[in-house]
Structure formats: structure tokens, C-alpha cells
Amino acid sequence: MGRRTRVGTLTVALGIVVVLGVLGAPGTLAAKGIVGVAHPASGSLAVTAKYPFAFDPNTFSNVPTNTTISVTLTNGDTIPHTFTILNREGYVIPSSADPTAMAVQFGSLVNIVADGGTTAYGNFTSPATGWYEFFCNESGHFGNGMYGFIAFGEGLPANLTVSAASTGPGIAVFIITGTIVALVVIALVLGFVVGRRRGAEHEMPPERLGYPEPVAPAGFPPEPPTGPAHPK
Ligand SMILES: [Cu+2]
User: Fold this and answer.
1) How far is the CA of 51 from the centre of ligand 1 (A)?
2) H or E stretch including 187?
3) Phi, psi angles (nearest 5°) of residue 195
4) 135 CA to centre of ligand 1 in angstroms
5) 20 C-alpha vs ligand 1 centroid, how far in Å?
6) Which pLDDT belongs to residue 217?
7) Which pLDDT belongs to residue 230?
8) For residue 76, what are the CA distances in angstroms to 12, 121, 138, 143, 145?
9) Is residue 81 within 8 Å of 72, Cβ to Cβ?
10) Cα of 144 to ligand 1 centre, how many Å?
11) 111: CA distance to ligand 1 center in Å?
């Protein structure tokens, strides 16, 4: 394969990688869509944490107010996850925020931790009518889209559901990650091509570079003792 063909192949491969890097972001977002609205029976709710960084369901509506709610957190993943409701009514956690720090600042209605492959239980006293955001308190999980919304004594606002699916915290992370990957690949490919061109220049025969072939010093390499006389 000639160099031109090889560069052409690399260019095509690079183009595919860049396109995948860009298209991969919205593709991943599909996984962030609302997967179901739970209407829990009086006083209980069940939620599953699953790979990758998701709650199922990720919205709860009409949860009873001012009563004890028993929570079952099933962890279907292999790493620990939490179910943590930020105690701040009617508030969407900004994508740039550190939810762990916010939970320290505002407190949480409930904070349940389940190791991978285990089920954990907890109780909390539900508040008056209003809606709250819940999230996973493990480092980095919120930024990867592990959050949802829960409404007590009412349904979730319609615009909140749309907002959660289309402009949630995970989007920026995916786009930034995809861009970084694409840039690294570009740098590697450019380095490879430039390196090959320099290598080819060094390996090119001297006469094609415009200077004569170097003359070996006399007596080097040594002639074999029984060989014919050297023409020079
Ligand atoms: Cu998690």
C-alpha cells in the first residue's frame, strides 16, 4: 500500500471516528430519556439502580404526602449506588453543581446506599405537596445522568420532564468527552502521518536528496583475505 493510499485510508478512518464522536452524544442521550412514571402504592416506592448510571424508574408522581415512605433500592449494577433526594423543593440541580455538596448544604429527604448486586431499604417522612430532584451520591454519577424527579401529592410538571430528558446534566459531559476523544485521535493520526513522512525522508536514497553517496574510508569494510582484489 503506497503512502498516498495509506494517508487516504487514515483520513477516512479519522472522518468515521469524528462522526461517531459527534453522533455518539445524542445516541447516548436516548438512554437518559424518561423510562417510566411510577405511581407507588401508599407509603412505598421501589427503584432500581442499573448500568450505566441510571435509575429505573427515574420519575415518581403522586407519592403520598406527610407520611412514612418505605424505599426499596435494588442495585442491578456491579458498583455502589445511592438513592438520595435533595431536600430542596421545586429545584433542578444545575449540571455544573456538585450534588454531594448540595446535599450537605440542604440536607436530603432520604439517602440510601446499596452495594453492587444488593438491595437496600430505608424509610423517610414525605414532605407536603411539591417536587424534588433525586440523584446518586457516588462521585461522578450525577454528572453521567444518574438523577430523576419525584413529586409528592401531585404530578411532575410537564416541562420538568421534557427538560430532564433533553437538557439534563449528562449532555455536556458526553459532548465534552466525545470532543476530547476526537481531538486525541486527530493528534495521534497527524503524529503518525508526520512521523512516517520524516521517516521516509531519512530513508530516501542519498542521490535523491541531492548529495553523493558517502565514500567508505579506505580499508573499510575489511576485505576477506581470500577475496579478489578490490577494483579500486
Ligand atoms: Cu450511582
Assistant:
1) 9
2) helix 170-203
3) -60, -40
4) 8
5) 26
6) 64
7) 60
8) 40, 15, 15, 20, 17
9) no
10) 9
11) 12
Cell numbers for 7: 494517508
CA distances from 17 to 4, 13, 25 (A): 20, 6, 13
φ and ψ at residue 61, rounded to 5 degrees: -125, 155
Q: What is the pLDDT of residues 42-51, one digit of tens each?
A: 699 999 999 9
Q: Which residues in the chain come in under a pLDDT of 70?
A: 1-42, 161-232
Cell of 216: 567508505
Half-sphere exposure of 188 (CA within 13 A, CB side): 10
Measured between its terminal Cα atoms, the distance across the chain in Å is 40
* Residue 90 Ramachandran class (φ > 0 left, ψ -120 to 50 alpha, else beta): left
Q: How many angstroms does the Cα of residue 26 sit away from the middle of ligand 1? A: 21
Q: Which domains does the chain have, with CATH numbers?
A: 26-175 (2.60.40.420)
Query: Which of 85, 79, 152, 154 has its CA nearest to residue 122?
Result: 85
Going by C-alpha positions, the residue among 78, 68, 146 that lies closest to residue 114 is 78
The C-alpha cell of 211 is what?
Answer: 548529495
Closest CA to 143 of 199, 190, 100, 202: 100
Q: Which residues surround ligand 1, an ion (CB under 5 A)?
A: 81, 136, 138, 141, 146
Residue 210 grid coordinates: 541531492
